[in-house]
Amino acid sequence: MFASEFRSADESALVAEIQACTRTETVTAARRMAAIGELAARADAPELDERQQWVVDLWASAAAEVAAAMGISQRKASGQMRTALALRERLPKLAARFSAGEISAKLVSAITWRTHLVVDAELMARI
Fold it and tell me: Which residues contact 8 (CB under 8 A, 6 or more apart)?
C-alpha cells in the first residue's frame, strides 16, 4: 500500500486524502470515547451490585478492560475514561464536534483536562 497507491496522485488529491483520513480517525476516536464513557459511567455508578464487593474496585476493573481492548496501560486507560466521562457528562457540545470529526482527540484531551476543575454551571455552559 505504501509503495504504489498514491504514486500517480497529484498533491491536491493527496491533501484531500489526508484530510478525509484524519476526519475518519477522529470520528472513530469519538465513537471509541463514547463507548469508554459508557463503561466508565457504569463503573463510577453508586449502585450496589455484587461487584462492589470485589477486591479491585469497579473503576480499576473497567480500566483493565479498556487497557486490554486498546493495548495501553491501565493508567492511560483510566485517563481515557476520565476524558470520556467529561465528554459524556460535562462537555456534550465538545463531544458533538468531536463526533463530527471537527476537532482532534489531542485537542479534546487538552480541553477536558484543563476544564476539569471548573464547577460553576454558567461558566461551563460558556466553555
Answer: none
CB 93 within 8 A of CB 67: no
The amino acid occupying position 99 is S
Query: What DSSP character marks residue 46?
Result: -
Residue from 120, 108, 82, 89 nearest 30 by CA: 108
pTM for this predicted structure: 0.76
Distance in angstroms (rounded) separating the CA atoms of residues 49 and 42: 11
Q: Smallest Cα–Cα separation from 86: which of 41, 24, 120? A: 41
What's the average model confidence in pLDDT over 47-59? Answer: 69
Cα separation, 27 vs 24, in Å, equals 5
Asked whether the beta carbons of 98 and 92 are under 8 A apart, the reply is no
Q: What mean pLDDT is predicted for residues 8-17?
A: 90
**What's residue 127's pLDDT?**
78
